[in-house]
Structure to design on (117 residues):
């Protein structure tokens, strides 16, 4: 019985550690400021367009809307990025943390930390 408990706890620990691995940007992403700023602006246009399509989300955007309003913005953004067929935009979208992915007022910090040199 004790061996079964140890085996189950090791399996759970292994699954938990696999989920904690953050997405690393692929070589698809540029590393110069001009290209990254343009990529961030393209992503922000997608998020803003999604918010505009979700007209019921109110004047304050993602951070203060209801769950259904946020779900609308998330769904529209995910759909637009998937349908874009732009590998750089898709990689950048995967790179962004969840709280920044759908925020049209996110700071430039997220693209600036990818700049090399």
């Amino acid at each position: 019985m004790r061996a079964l408990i140890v085996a189950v706890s090791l399996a759970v620990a292994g699954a938990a550690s696999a989920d904690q691995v953050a997405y690393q940007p692929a070589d698809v992403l540029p590393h110069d400021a001009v290209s990254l700023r343009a990529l961030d602006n393209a992503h922000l246009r997608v998020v803003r367009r999604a918010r505009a399509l979700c007209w019921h989300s109110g004047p304050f955007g993602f951070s203060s809307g209801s769950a259904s309003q946020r779900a609308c913005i998330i769904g529209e953004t995910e759909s637009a990025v998937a349908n874009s067929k732009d590998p750089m935009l898709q990689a950048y979208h995967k790179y962004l943390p969840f709280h920044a992915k759908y925020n049209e007022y996110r700071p430039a910090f997220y693209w600036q930390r990818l700049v090399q040199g």
